[in-house]
Recover the amino acids of this structure.
Protein backbone atom coordinates (compact mmCIF):
# COMPACT_ATOMS: atom_id res chain seq x y z
CA UNK A 1 0.00 0.00 0.00
CA UNK A 2 1.28 3.46 -0.89
CA UNK A 3 2.68 5.71 1.81
CA UNK A 4 2.13 8.87 -0.25
CA UNK A 5 -0.27 10.23 2.37
CA UNK A 6 2.52 9.89 4.93
CA UNK A 7 5.44 11.41 3.03
CA UNK A 8 3.56 13.73 0.65
CA UNK A 9 0.35 14.81 2.42
CA UNK A 10 -1.78 17.63 1.05
CA UNK A 11 -3.86 17.98 4.21
CA UNK A 12 -3.09 17.42 7.91
CA UNK A 13 -5.06 17.19 11.16
CA UNK A 14 -3.34 17.54 14.53
CA UNK A 15 -4.79 16.01 17.71
CA UNK A 16 -3.45 17.18 21.07
CA UNK A 17 -2.73 20.90 20.82
CA UNK A 18 -3.82 22.90 23.86
CA UNK A 19 -6.06 25.95 23.59
CA UNK A 20 -4.55 27.41 26.79
CA UNK A 21 -0.91 26.30 26.97
CA UNK A 22 1.17 26.75 23.83
CA UNK A 23 4.14 25.00 25.52
CA UNK A 24 2.53 21.58 25.04
CA UNK A 25 4.14 19.14 22.63
CA UNK A 26 0.88 19.04 20.68
CA UNK A 27 1.23 22.78 20.02
CA UNK A 28 4.79 22.27 18.80
CA UNK A 29 3.45 19.60 16.46
CA UNK A 30 0.69 21.91 15.22
CA UNK A 31 3.08 24.80 14.63
CA UNK A 32 5.54 22.55 12.81
CA UNK A 33 2.85 21.06 10.58
CA UNK A 34 1.41 24.47 9.71
CA UNK A 35 4.80 25.66 8.51
CA UNK A 36 4.86 23.43 5.44
CA UNK A 37 1.35 23.28 4.02
CA UNK A 38 -1.65 25.58 4.11
CA UNK A 39 -4.26 22.86 4.70
CA UNK A 40 -3.84 22.16 8.42
CA UNK A 41 -6.46 22.01 11.14
CA UNK A 42 -6.50 21.16 14.82
CA UNK A 43 -8.90 18.70 16.45
CA UNK A 44 -10.01 19.93 19.88
CA UNK A 45 -13.28 19.33 21.80
CA UNK A 46 -13.94 23.02 22.50
CA UNK A 47 -11.67 25.49 20.71
CA UNK A 48 -12.50 27.10 17.38
CA UNK A 49 -8.89 28.13 16.74
CA UNK A 50 -5.55 27.18 18.31
CA UNK A 51 -2.51 29.36 17.73
CA UNK A 52 -4.30 30.86 14.75
CA UNK A 53 -5.14 27.47 13.20
CA UNK A 54 -8.80 26.48 12.68
CA UNK A 55 -10.02 23.79 15.08
CA UNK A 56 -12.89 21.28 14.93
CA UNK A 57 -14.36 19.05 17.63
CA UNK A 58 -14.39 16.01 15.34
CA UNK A 59 -12.70 15.49 12.02
CA UNK A 60 -15.40 16.27 9.48
CA UNK A 61 -13.63 15.59 6.19
CA UNK A 62 -11.05 13.30 4.68
CA UNK A 63 -7.44 14.31 5.23
CA UNK A 64 -4.20 12.67 4.20
CA UNK A 65 -2.33 12.66 7.50
CA UNK A 66 -3.45 12.69 11.14
CA UNK A 67 -0.85 13.55 13.79
CA UNK A 68 -1.93 12.27 17.21
CA UNK A 69 -0.27 13.61 20.35
CA UNK A 70 -2.73 13.07 23.18
CA UNK A 71 -2.40 11.18 26.50
CA UNK A 72 -2.37 7.41 25.99
CA UNK A 73 -5.90 6.97 27.38
CA UNK A 74 -7.29 9.27 24.66
CA UNK A 75 -5.35 7.86 21.72
CA UNK A 76 -7.93 5.21 20.81
CA UNK A 77 -10.69 7.80 20.46
CA UNK A 78 -8.47 9.93 18.24
CA UNK A 79 -7.61 6.95 16.01
CA UNK A 80 -11.32 6.08 15.73
CA UNK A 81 -12.10 9.69 14.75
CA UNK A 82 -9.36 9.85 12.10
CA UNK A 83 -10.28 6.44 10.67
CA UNK A 84 -13.98 7.34 10.50
CA UNK A 85 -13.14 10.47 8.52
CA UNK A 86 -11.10 8.46 6.03
CA UNK A 87 -7.59 9.63 6.92
CA UNK A 88 -4.90 8.05 4.77
CA UNK A 89 -2.30 7.68 7.54
CA UNK A 90 -2.25 8.36 11.27
CA UNK A 91 0.95 8.87 13.23
CA UNK A 92 0.59 8.15 16.95
CA UNK A 93 3.43 10.01 18.64
CA UNK A 94 2.09 9.25 22.14
CA UNK A 95 3.79 6.60 24.30
CA UNK A 96 2.44 4.00 26.71
CA UNK A 97 1.69 1.03 24.46
CA UNK A 98 3.57 -2.06 23.29
CA UNK A 99 6.82 -0.87 24.84
CA UNK A 100 5.25 -1.12 28.32
CA UNK A 101 4.38 -4.82 28.25
CA UNK A 102 1.49 -7.21 27.44
CA UNK A 103 -1.37 -4.89 28.46
CA UNK A 104 0.02 -2.03 26.44
CA UNK A 105 0.47 -4.34 23.48
CA UNK A 106 -3.22 -5.33 23.64
CA UNK A 107 -4.23 -1.67 23.35
CA UNK A 108 -1.70 -1.18 20.56
CA UNK A 109 -3.18 -4.13 18.66
CA UNK A 110 -6.64 -2.55 18.96
CA UNK A 111 -5.32 0.65 17.39
CA UNK A 112 -4.00 -1.30 14.44
CA UNK A 113 -7.30 -3.17 14.04
CA UNK A 114 -9.23 0.11 14.03
CA UNK A 115 -6.90 1.60 11.42
CA UNK A 116 -6.98 -1.44 9.15
CA UNK A 117 -10.77 -1.64 9.27
CA UNK A 118 -10.90 1.66 7.38
CA UNK A 119 -7.82 1.19 5.20
CA UNK A 120 -5.82 3.72 7.20
CA UNK A 121 -2.11 3.10 7.84
CA UNK A 122 -0.77 3.69 11.35
CA UNK A 123 2.76 4.82 12.27
CA UNK A 124 4.03 4.38 15.83
CA UNK A 125 2.95 4.53 18.59
CA UNK A 126 5.86 5.93 20.63
CA UNK A 127 7.60 7.80 17.83
CA UNK A 128 8.84 11.26 16.83
CA UNK A 129 6.97 11.62 13.54
CA UNK A 130 7.85 12.39 9.94
CA UNK A 131 9.86 15.00 8.03
CA UNK A 132 9.73 15.23 4.25
CA UNK A 133 10.88 17.65 1.55
CA UNK A 134 7.83 18.56 -0.52
CA UNK A 135 9.63 20.52 -3.22
CA UNK A 136 10.94 24.07 -3.60
CA UNK A 137 11.17 25.55 -0.09
CA UNK A 138 8.28 23.51 1.31
CA UNK A 139 8.87 20.99 4.08
CA UNK A 140 6.54 18.71 5.98
CA UNK A 141 7.53 18.71 9.64
CA UNK A 142 5.09 16.31 11.23
CA UNK A 143 7.36 15.75 14.20
CA UNK A 144 8.28 17.00 17.64
CA UNK A 145 11.59 18.39 16.37
CA UNK A 146 11.72 22.16 16.84
CA UNK A 147 14.38 22.50 14.15
CA UNK A 148 14.92 20.35 11.09
CA UNK A 149 17.58 20.49 8.37
CA UNK A 150 16.33 22.77 5.60
CA UNK A 151 18.71 21.72 2.86
CA UNK A 152 17.15 19.37 0.30
CA UNK A 153 19.13 16.31 -0.74
CA UNK A 154 18.89 12.64 -1.56
CA UNK A 155 19.36 11.10 1.90
CA UNK A 156 16.39 9.42 3.57
CA UNK A 157 16.46 7.95 7.05
CA UNK A 158 14.14 5.52 8.87
CA UNK A 159 14.62 5.00 12.58
CA UNK A 160 13.16 2.93 15.38
CA UNK A 161 14.63 5.56 17.69
CA UNK A 162 13.37 9.11 17.63
CA UNK A 163 16.43 10.40 19.48
CA UNK A 164 18.78 8.92 16.89
CA UNK A 165 16.84 10.96 14.34
CA UNK A 166 17.97 14.05 16.23
CA UNK A 167 21.56 12.82 16.00
CA UNK A 168 21.12 12.30 12.27
CA UNK A 169 19.77 15.82 11.81
CA UNK A 170 22.75 17.19 13.74
CA UNK A 171 25.13 15.28 11.48
CA UNK A 172 23.41 16.61 8.34
CA UNK A 173 23.88 20.18 9.56
CA UNK A 174 27.54 19.58 10.35
CA UNK A 175 28.27 17.82 7.06
CA UNK A 176 26.29 20.17 4.83
CA UNK A 177 24.44 17.25 3.22
CA UNK A 178 20.76 17.43 2.32
CA UNK A 179 17.65 15.53 3.46
CA UNK A 180 14.85 13.95 1.49
CA UNK A 181 12.70 12.02 4.02
CA UNK A 182 12.82 11.06 7.69
CA UNK A 183 10.49 8.66 9.49
CA UNK A 184 10.48 7.57 13.12
CA UNK A 185 8.52 4.30 13.28
CA UNK A 186 8.63 3.77 17.05
CA UNK A 187 6.92 0.51 18.00
CA UNK A 188 6.16 -0.32 14.33
CA UNK A 189 2.68 -1.57 15.21
CA UNK A 190 1.59 -1.30 11.57
CA UNK A 191 3.99 0.63 9.32
CA UNK A 192 7.45 -0.77 9.91
CA UNK A 193 10.95 -0.32 8.57
CA UNK A 194 10.29 -2.71 5.67
CA UNK A 195 7.22 -0.76 4.51
CA UNK A 196 9.20 2.47 4.60
CA UNK A 197 12.16 0.88 2.80
CA UNK A 198 9.91 -0.40 0.03
CA UNK A 199 8.35 3.04 -0.54
CA UNK A 200 11.69 4.86 -0.40
CA UNK A 201 13.18 2.36 -2.82
CA UNK A 202 10.71 3.61 -5.46
CA UNK A 203 10.98 7.27 -4.43
CA UNK A 204 12.89 9.16 -7.17
CA UNK A 205 13.76 11.89 -4.68
CA UNK A 206 15.66 9.42 -2.45
CA UNK A 207 19.14 8.40 -3.64
CA UNK A 208 20.41 6.67 -0.48
CA UNK A 209 18.66 5.19 2.57
CA UNK A 210 19.89 4.90 6.15
CA UNK A 211 18.14 2.88 8.86
CA UNK A 212 18.53 2.63 12.65
CA UNK A 213 17.12 -0.76 13.64
CA UNK A 214 16.60 -2.29 17.07
CA UNK A 215 14.74 -5.38 15.89
CA UNK A 216 13.36 -6.94 12.71
CA UNK A 217 9.76 -8.09 13.03
CA UNK A 218 9.66 -9.46 9.48
CA UNK A 219 13.24 -10.43 8.69
CA UNK A 220 12.53 -12.55 5.61
CA UNK A 221 10.39 -9.85 3.98
CA UNK A 222 12.98 -7.21 4.86
CA UNK A 223 15.70 -9.19 3.07
CA UNK A 224 13.49 -9.67 -0.01
CA UNK A 225 12.62 -5.97 -0.19
CA UNK A 226 16.15 -4.82 0.59
CA UNK A 227 17.59 -7.00 -2.19
CA UNK A 228 15.39 -5.17 -4.71
CA UNK A 229 16.15 -1.73 -3.29
CA UNK A 230 19.93 -2.20 -3.11
CA UNK A 231 19.97 -2.99 -6.82
CA UNK A 232 18.94 0.65 -7.35
CA UNK A 233 20.37 2.63 -4.44
CA UNK A 234 22.56 2.03 -1.35
CA UNK A 235 21.00 1.04 1.97
CA UNK A 236 23.01 1.47 5.17
CA UNK A 237 21.84 -0.13 8.44
CA UNK A 238 23.02 0.51 11.99
CA UNK A 239 21.74 -2.40 14.06
CA UNK A 240 21.42 -1.71 17.77
CA UNK A 241 21.00 -4.46 20.35
CA UNK A 242 23.76 -6.68 18.97
CA UNK A 243 24.89 -7.65 22.46
CA UNK A 244 22.84 -8.97 25.38
CA UNK A 245 22.63 -5.65 27.25
CA UNK A 246 21.64 -3.77 24.11
CA UNK A 247 19.01 -6.36 23.21
CA UNK A 248 17.45 -5.98 26.66
CA UNK A 249 17.41 -2.20 26.29
CA UNK A 250 15.79 -2.47 22.84
CA UNK A 251 12.99 -4.61 24.25
CA UNK A 252 12.16 -1.99 26.87
CA UNK A 253 12.53 0.92 24.45
CA UNK A 254 10.31 -0.06 21.53
CA UNK A 255 9.36 -3.61 22.41
CA UNK A 256 11.66 -4.91 19.65
CA UNK A 257 13.13 -8.39 19.72
CA UNK A 258 16.75 -8.11 18.68
CA UNK A 259 17.29 -11.68 17.46
CA UNK A 260 20.56 -13.47 16.72
CA UNK A 261 22.95 -10.93 15.29
CA UNK A 262 24.93 -13.53 13.38
CA UNK A 263 21.79 -14.46 11.47
CA UNK A 264 20.88 -10.81 10.97
CA UNK A 265 24.35 -9.98 9.65
CA UNK A 266 24.17 -12.84 7.17
CA UNK A 267 20.72 -11.73 5.97
CA UNK A 268 21.83 -8.12 5.50
CA UNK A 269 24.87 -9.28 3.53
CA UNK A 270 22.71 -11.43 1.25
CA UNK A 271 20.46 -8.46 0.62
CA UNK A 272 23.34 -6.18 -0.36
CA UNK A 273 22.80 -3.96 2.68
CA UNK A 274 25.80 -2.15 4.16
CA UNK A 275 25.87 -2.84 7.90
CA UNK A 276 27.71 -0.20 9.92
CA UNK A 277 29.59 -1.31 13.01
CA UNK A 278 28.91 1.81 15.05
CA UNK A 279 27.57 5.36 14.92
CA UNK A 280 30.67 6.88 13.32
CA UNK A 281 30.79 4.17 10.64
CA UNK A 282 27.10 4.69 9.96
CA UNK A 283 27.43 8.41 9.37
CA UNK A 284 30.57 7.89 7.28
CA UNK A 285 28.78 5.34 5.12
CA UNK A 286 25.78 7.64 4.69
CA UNK A 287 28.08 10.50 3.69
CA UNK A 288 29.75 8.26 1.15
CA UNK A 289 26.42 7.11 -0.22
CA UNK A 290 25.21 10.72 -0.48
CA UNK A 291 28.03 11.72 -2.83
CA UNK A 292 28.10 8.49 -4.81
CA UNK A 293 31.09 6.72 -3.26
CA UNK A 294 29.05 3.53 -3.37
CA UNK A 295 27.88 3.72 -6.93
CA UNK A 296 30.94 1.59 -7.60
CA UNK A 297 32.26 -0.50 -4.74
CA UNK A 298 36.05 -0.72 -4.80
CA UNK A 299 38.64 -3.23 -3.67
CA UNK A 300 41.97 -1.93 -5.03
CA UNK A 301 42.85 1.50 -3.72
CA UNK A 302 45.79 3.87 -3.70
CA UNK A 303 46.72 5.86 -0.62
CA UNK A 304 48.38 9.11 -1.69
CA UNK A 305 49.94 11.45 0.83
CA UNK A 306 52.65 13.89 1.77
CA UNK A 307 52.12 12.99 5.43
CA UNK A 308 53.78 9.61 6.03
CA UNK A 309 52.59 8.50 9.49
CA UNK A 310 48.82 8.75 8.95
CA UNK A 311 49.16 6.83 5.69
CA UNK A 312 50.48 3.84 7.68
CA UNK A 313 47.29 3.95 9.78
CA UNK A 314 45.30 4.05 6.55
CA UNK A 315 47.19 1.01 5.24
CA UNK A 316 46.37 -0.93 8.43
CA UNK A 317 42.72 0.07 8.13
CA UNK A 318 42.67 -1.04 4.50
CA UNK A 319 43.79 -4.54 5.41
CA UNK A 320 41.19 -4.75 8.20
CA UNK A 321 38.48 -3.64 5.78
CA UNK A 322 39.48 -6.15 3.11
CA UNK A 323 40.85 -3.56 0.67
CA UNK A 324 44.01 -4.17 -1.36
CA UNK A 325 46.89 -1.78 -2.04
CA UNK A 326 48.14 -2.82 -5.49
CA UNK A 327 51.53 -1.85 -6.89
CA UNK A 328 51.38 0.90 -9.47
CA UNK A 329 52.03 -0.03 -13.09
CA UNK A 330 55.45 0.39 -14.71
CA UNK A 331 54.31 3.33 -16.84
CA UNK A 332 52.93 5.13 -13.79
CA UNK A 333 56.12 4.56 -11.82
CA UNK A 334 58.23 5.87 -14.67
CA UNK A 335 56.09 8.99 -14.85
CA UNK A 336 56.31 9.55 -11.09
CA UNK A 337 60.09 9.14 -10.97
CA UNK A 338 60.39 12.09 -13.30
CA UNK A 339 58.24 14.24 -11.01
CA UNK A 340 59.08 13.48 -7.36
CA UNK A 341 62.30 13.37 -5.28
CA UNK A 342 64.38 10.21 -5.44
CA UNK A 343 63.55 9.45 -1.80
CA UNK A 344 59.77 9.58 -2.32
CA UNK A 345 57.98 6.32 -1.45
CA UNK A 346 56.37 4.98 -4.63
CA UNK A 347 54.97 1.79 -3.17
CA UNK A 348 51.42 1.92 -1.94
CA UNK A 349 50.88 4.09 0.15
CA UNK A 350 52.50 6.63 -2.15
CA UNK A 351 54.29 9.40 -0.24
CA UNK A 352 55.11 12.25 -2.62
CA UNK A 353 56.87 14.08 0.28
CA UNK A 354 56.69 17.81 1.10
CA UNK A 355 59.92 18.30 -0.88
CA UNK A 356 58.22 17.51 -4.20
CA UNK A 357 58.41 20.55 -6.54
CA UNK A 358 55.14 22.34 -5.96
CA UNK A 359 54.15 22.39 -9.62
CA UNK A 360 54.69 18.61 -9.84
CA UNK A 361 51.94 17.62 -7.38
CA UNK A 362 49.14 17.94 -9.89
CA UNK A 363 50.64 15.78 -12.66
CA UNK A 364 51.90 13.23 -10.13
CA UNK A 365 48.49 12.75 -8.54
CA UNK A 366 46.80 12.70 -11.94
CA UNK A 367 49.16 9.87 -12.94
CA UNK A 368 48.14 7.86 -9.87
CA UNK A 369 44.45 8.31 -10.67
CA UNK A 370 45.04 7.21 -14.26
CA UNK A 371 46.70 3.93 -13.24
CA UNK A 372 44.45 1.01 -14.32
CA UNK A 373 45.14 -0.90 -11.10
CA UNK A 374 43.64 1.88 -8.95
CA UNK A 375 39.86 1.75 -8.39
CA UNK A 376 39.65 4.32 -5.61
CA UNK A 377 41.85 6.77 -3.72
CA UNK A 378 42.39 7.81 -0.12
CA UNK A 379 44.12 11.20 0.01
CA UNK A 380 45.89 12.26 3.23
CA UNK A 381 47.32 15.65 4.15
CA UNK A 382 48.23 16.72 7.69
CA UNK A 383 49.28 20.33 8.20
CA UNK A 384 51.01 20.81 4.84
CA UNK A 385 48.79 23.36 3.14
CA UNK A 386 50.20 22.97 -0.35
CA UNK A 387 47.18 23.83 -2.46
CA UNK A 388 48.32 21.90 -5.58
CA UNK A 389 48.00 18.66 -3.60
CA UNK A 390 44.27 19.35 -3.31
CA UNK A 391 44.11 20.50 -6.94
CA UNK A 392 45.67 17.23 -8.08
CA UNK A 393 43.04 15.22 -6.20
CA UNK A 394 40.24 17.40 -7.58
CA UNK A 395 41.49 16.97 -11.15
CA UNK A 396 41.98 13.25 -10.68
CA UNK A 397 38.38 12.87 -9.55
CA UNK A 398 37.12 15.01 -12.43
CA UNK A 399 39.11 13.05 -15.02
CA UNK A 400 38.39 9.52 -13.82
CA UNK A 401 35.35 9.62 -11.52
CA UNK A 402 37.15 7.22 -9.19
CA UNK A 403 35.70 7.18 -5.65
CA UNK A 404 37.81 9.28 -3.29
CA UNK A 405 37.84 9.90 0.45
CA UNK A 406 40.24 12.18 2.28
CA UNK A 407 41.71 12.94 5.67
CA UNK A 408 42.85 16.57 5.79
CA UNK A 409 44.04 18.36 8.92
CA UNK A 410 45.10 22.02 9.25
CA UNK A 411 45.34 22.50 5.50
CA UNK A 412 42.47 24.84 4.54
CA UNK A 413 43.68 25.50 1.00
CA UNK A 414 43.96 21.79 0.25
CA UNK A 415 40.57 21.15 1.86
CA UNK A 416 38.90 23.91 -0.17
CA UNK A 417 40.17 22.38 -3.43
CA UNK A 418 38.83 18.97 -2.45
CA UNK A 419 35.53 20.35 -1.24
CA UNK A 420 35.02 22.09 -4.56
CA UNK A 421 35.35 18.72 -6.28
CA UNK A 422 32.87 17.06 -3.90
CA UNK A 423 35.52 14.98 -2.14
CA UNK A 424 34.39 13.97 1.35
CA UNK A 425 36.81 14.61 4.20
CA UNK A 426 36.76 12.40 7.27
CA UNK A 427 37.93 12.83 10.85
CA UNK A 428 40.64 10.16 10.70
CA UNK A 429 42.59 8.12 8.12
CA UNK A 430 40.73 4.98 9.22
CA UNK A 431 37.33 6.54 8.65
CA UNK A 432 38.36 7.69 5.18
CA UNK A 433 39.38 4.13 4.33
CA UNK A 434 36.17 2.68 5.71
CA UNK A 435 34.15 5.04 3.54
CA UNK A 436 35.54 3.25 0.50
CA UNK A 437 35.26 -0.27 1.89
CA UNK A 438 32.44 -2.48 0.69
CA UNK A 439 31.39 -3.57 4.16
CA UNK A 440 32.15 -0.53 6.35
Amino acid sequence: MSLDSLFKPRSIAVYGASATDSRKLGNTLLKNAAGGTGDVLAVHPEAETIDGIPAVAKLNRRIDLALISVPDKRVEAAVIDAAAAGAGTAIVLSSGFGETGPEGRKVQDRLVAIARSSGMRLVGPNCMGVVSHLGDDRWLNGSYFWSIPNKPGGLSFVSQSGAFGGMFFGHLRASGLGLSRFLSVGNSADVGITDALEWLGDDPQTTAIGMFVEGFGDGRRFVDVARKVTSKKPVVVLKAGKMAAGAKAAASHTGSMAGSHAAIRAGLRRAGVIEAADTESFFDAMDGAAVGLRKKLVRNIAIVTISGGPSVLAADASERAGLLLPALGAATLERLRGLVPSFAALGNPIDLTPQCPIDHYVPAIEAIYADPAVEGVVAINCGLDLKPFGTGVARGVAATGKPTAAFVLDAPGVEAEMAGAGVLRFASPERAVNALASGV
Q: What stands out?
A: The chain is about 40% helix and 20% strand.
